[in-house]
TrEMBL record:
The chain crosses the membrane at residues 12-34. The gene is oadG. NCBIfam families: oadG_fam. This is Probable oxaloacetate decarboxylase gamma chain. It is found in: Cell membrane. It comes from Halomonas pelophila. The lineage of its organism: Bacteria, Pseudomonadati, Pseudomonadota, Gammaproteobacteria, Oceanospirillales. It is a single-pass membrane protein. Catalyzes the decarboxylation of oxaloacetate coupled to Na(+) translocation. Its cofactor is Na(+). Belongs to the OadG family. It is an enzyme of class 7 (translocase). It comes from the Bacteria.
Length: 82
């Protein structure tokens, strides 16, 4: 075989391989999208119940958490002085 024939066969094989990969990835994306839409249609996510408007207990809990974290940081710094 001559060099030009080898190069032509190599380019043809490369084009065939790249074309196969492109077609496979395109089909994979299409199937994944279709599967996602099908699952979303037949198994929708449950709707979360409406949140109650009770901000006072959450604020109290945040204050307690802030106090506890501050105490823990203070105690850590006391134990690990340099």
């Amino acid at each position: 075989m001559q060099d030009s024939q080898l190069i032509n066969e190599g380019l043809a094989l490369m084009g065939l391989g790249m074309g196969f990969v492109f077609v496979f990835l395109t089909v994979l994306v299409g199937v994944t999208t279709l599967m996602s839409k099908t699952i979303g249609r037949f198994f929708p996510e449950p709707v979360a119940p409406a949140a109650r408007d009770s901000r006072a207990p959450a604020a109290r809990q945040d204050d307690d958490l802030t106090v506890v974290i501050s105490a823990a940081v203070h105690r850590y710094r006391q134990r690990h002085k340099r």
